[in-house]
Design a protein that fits this description.
It is built from 4 helices and 9 strands; from the N terminus they run E-E-H-H-E-E-E-E-E-E-E-H-H. The chain is an alpha+beta fold.
Length: 208
């Protein structure tokens, strides 16, 4: 079995620790829960070209600096339906890529089961809360050139695909929690925020 899937397809060549896009990109500020751009649906991407490619490069670099497994465009303040990811699936296989205008397919209950595991978000720095998510996800969309794309994931990668699709639909994972759990997550984030931002600053020089 190949160890890396790039853009939903198996990669036979060796793949670097950081996606090549990150080398071309610049770090952007990660938006935080409460900012309007995170709480309303994003617009479809309709223009494909160098500006979109540059945004994807920036998103990859920002994701790595923030130690994330996925990052949506509205998490860098851009209200477009787009996310990037670098995440392991349920079998330990690495998945790297981006999805434009993602749509999460509805799966029959018999085709999935719920995993109640920890989930965090770069826009809620430092907070991790148990949240049930399906153990399988299928997302359809486009690549940076406007070509059709299908990405399937299991385990933690399925969680990532669902989480990031939530983002482009204007939802953060806190929206799926009870009021008590949400307050606990926000307290956890407030307690760890300074530590998390210090790590991000240190990481900025480490991403090639």
């Amino acid at each position: 079995m190949p160890s890396v899937f790039v853009q939903g397809r198996p990669s036979t060549a060796s793949y670097p620790p950081f996606a090549p896009e990150a080398r071309r990109g610049s770090v952007r500020r990660v938006t935080e829960v409460g900012e309007e751009v995170l709480h309303k649906p994003c617009r479809d991407v309709t223009e494909f070209g160098p500006d979109l490619a540059a945004l994807i490069d920036d998103m990859f670099r920002t994701m790595y600096v923030a130690e994330g497994a996925g990052l949506a465009a509205n998490q860098v303040g851009v209200a477009l339906r787009l996310f990037v990811y670098d995440c392991l699936d349920g079998d330990g296989v690495r998945h790297v890529g981006h999805i434009v205008n993602p749509a999460l397919e509805s799966l029959e209950p018999s085709a999935r089961r719920l995993l109640d595991e920890g989930e965090g978000c770069l826009s809620v720095p430092g907070a991790v809360v148990a949240l049930p998510r399906p153990d399988r996800a299928v997302v359809r969309g486009l690549d940076r050139d406007g070509e059709p794309l299908l990405v399937e994931g299991t385990g933690y990668f399925a969680r990532c695909l669902a989480h990031e699709t939530d983002h482009v639909n204007g939802h953060v994972y806190l929206d799926r929690l009870s009021a008590r759990e949400r307050k606990a997550a926000l307290r956890q984030s407030a307690d760890r925020r300074e530590e998390i931002f210090a790590r991000r600053t240190a990481n900025a020089a480490a991403v090639g």
